[in-house]
């Protein structure tokens, strides 16, 4: 009977997988000899998260656009808030160009801040494709009005609901520091969804959401008059300047808000640190990499493929939904942006480390 | 809304989509059936295929799968005393003793029928709450969520068995285990001993498998006996269905508990079976819960299927997933070009309604399929322990390992398993440990946020006070509720 049990299971499972197979172009699960006919995207998160979706979204296009139409599969290595998988990619995955890494801001920020568990170096990797993401800070309509009149006038602190000061929240927190806003950060929410619900409940009155979540869940609040955007976190252009987010051209940047309120452009170390973090966490929100030691021709094939993907009509259409319409970065432009973003100056690094230690009692070099 | 519902029905019943729903049901039952594999695995397995699919087809596949996992996972819980997924642990408490008495078929008949009813109630609840979802969700801010975790923890007292002291202690050990890893509210790691693996904490499937399955396996080997000593499997599935029908109020009540717990974001549906079991134990008269009372199977099985309907509400409408499974579902929606959020009840209402219909149909078909499988599968319990252990061990090890593909999972599995074995020998209750483990993180998180945000003001929130009263009543006034339920449920019997 045990056999029957086993057999029913196996037949069922095989039948299910066979029936599904023709529908997909990425042959996950198929065992081909490793090398150039099978590309593996290492995703340092569990299946289903943002970075995983990003990686999976690209698989069919890599298959179509790369010479020889390789099979592309995704390998999820979750754990350690993306550090486990990224470490494993850097240390243990073959450096023959068959394995690629999909990284996100969660791997970029600890790297920039010298978190002790980081065992990878992006300088030893070649970027293939990079994709930006934006963020919008918003508040209640009453507070927003007061903010626009005089943001130093808040007697009571604004309550900000966040997840963890060492994640993406860091950029938002730094923007408040740049503006010298009176706020109280309540950290510990389970995610950006719960933090938005906290805003809707009135538990917080200052929040930010990334582009897709903002468009889907905050815009309706703005329309029915319960939320009001303050500014976008902005993007860093090729010259290293903070510019308006192309998805939110009507929203000012932190710089514009500062000029409007204080009558001069922001300067100083906090401001420099903020721009640096926007670059590494938002403009380069997600990057697909390959080991620098991979054979030159295989890197070239990937880079040519990336250029092809960028032009692909089907990709452009679908990217509108999955990548929120941001234009992907490739080739020299991507390399230049990365050099800029990850060359964090010691003073910026020390400033952020000291800030986290002082305000949130977090010694990042010990994590 | 009725019109749109009928329109969605025709979409769902389109034969080309129906096939995918059946495919999903098949996969869901297998995933549920194999101990160690849970909804998260099923989702991850199907995710690569949904990219670019017609949303209705993809939903038929994914929801069809999710809906029946809690139906299929009853098999190992009842037959072997090993939870099929972490959502059917409470079923073991009475399901396994029943199997030992040779009443496995009856227990499963009752379980599948309760699953069916619970699942359908969950689907209907999802449909009915669509218009009120927003005020309902915003009613639960951090202080209320904290009180709900306390309500969950108070179940440890109810499930403690003979000694309340042992129960509380086991619950505290669970809380301790749950504290391993990165703290929810303060940026620091606890008990990680510089290992990157432990920074994410112990994973629930591994702990649940270890604490329940590992001891059973050892017992099977040491005792060298079959689950069922009775020579013949007596009692048919139909008898079980009839018993469920007699206990219709318990079924409905448990389903409502399941919907509510599933609905509340941030609580995590993993304790829903225990909470329903605890409530059942408190409210059913003359019960012999824990010794093979069939009502102890009906309550958690009805609740764990109903939970899925409830948990869709925050997932679809607010984009806040309550579990690993729904988190992946959100990703799947993105791959099909949909975004969770208010648009799911405006422009994409038909998608949401097709989810409701799929939940209802998949629960019905899944339960019928399982009822048909009872006869062949229940013979498992007549196989001698030594023969079945190697097969189970392989499954469990794979199940543990797949949770994060790290060897650390295996170490944790063995260590916690041995601990669980010691607990069984010393007759310490294990459910409180699991409840403590599951709720540790949320309890700490919401307590911290409540204090950080409101100081002590939140103590006087009306809903907080109501929940505090409920907890007190549960802990002390069980007798009153028992008397009440005697009136309501005079027809129920085992």
Task: Please render the helix and strand layout as text.
The complex is a heterodimer of chains A (367) and B (494).
Chain A: H1 2-20, E1 38-43, H2 50-65, E2 71-76, H3 83-92, E3 99-104, H4 105-112, E4 125-131, E5 135-139, H5 141-149, E6 158-162, H6 169-179, E7 183-187, H7 192-201, E8 206-210, H8 211-223, E9 228-232, E10 235-236, E11 242-243, H9 254-262, H10 269-283, E12 286-291, H11 296-311, H12 313-322, E13 329-330, H13 331-342, H14 346-360
Parallel strand pairs in A: 1-2, 1-3, 6-7
Antiparallel strand pairs in A: 3-12, 4-12, 4-13, 5-8, 5-9, 10-11
Helix pairs in contact in A: 2-11, 4-10, 6-10, 10-13, 10-14
Chain B: H1 2-12, H2 15-33, H3 39-50, H4 55-72, H5 74-79, H6 89-100, H7 104-129, H8 133-139, H9 142-158, H10 164-178, E1 181-182, E2 189-190, H11 204-223, H12 237-246, H13 248-263, H14 272-283, H15 295-318, H16 324-335, H17 349-378, H18 385-402, H19 407-425, H20 431-454, H21 462-476, H22 478-488
Antiparallel strand pairs in B: 1-2
Helix pairs in contact in B: 1-17, 2-4, 2-17, 3-4, 3-16, 4-7, 4-15, 4-16, 4-17, 6-7, 6-15, 7-12, 7-13, 7-15, 7-17, 9-10, 9-20, 9-21, 10-20, 11-18, 11-19, 13-14, 13-15, 14-15, 15-17
- Described by the principal axes of the CA atoms, the overall outline of chain B is globular
Number of strands of chain B: 2
Radius of gyration of chain B, whole Å? 21 Å
Largest sheet of chain A: 6 strands, mixed
Structural class by sheet pairing and helices of chain A = alpha/beta
The biggest chain-chain interface is: A-B, 72 and 70 residues
Strand adjacency order, main sheet of chain A: 2-1-3-12-4-13
Q: Give the CA-CA distance, first to last residue of chain A.
A: 51 Å
Q: Approximately how much helix is present in the residues of chain B?
A: over 70%
Order of helices and strands of chain A: HEHEHEHEEHEHEHEHEEEHHEHHEHH
CATH-scheme architecture of the largest domain in chain A: 3-Layer(aba) Sandwich
The number of helical runs of chain B is 22
Number of domains of chain A: 2
Q: What is the third-level CATH name, the topology of the largest domain in chain A?
A: D-Maltodextrin-Binding Protein, domain 2
Going by helix content, strand content and strand pairing, the class of chain B is mainly alpha
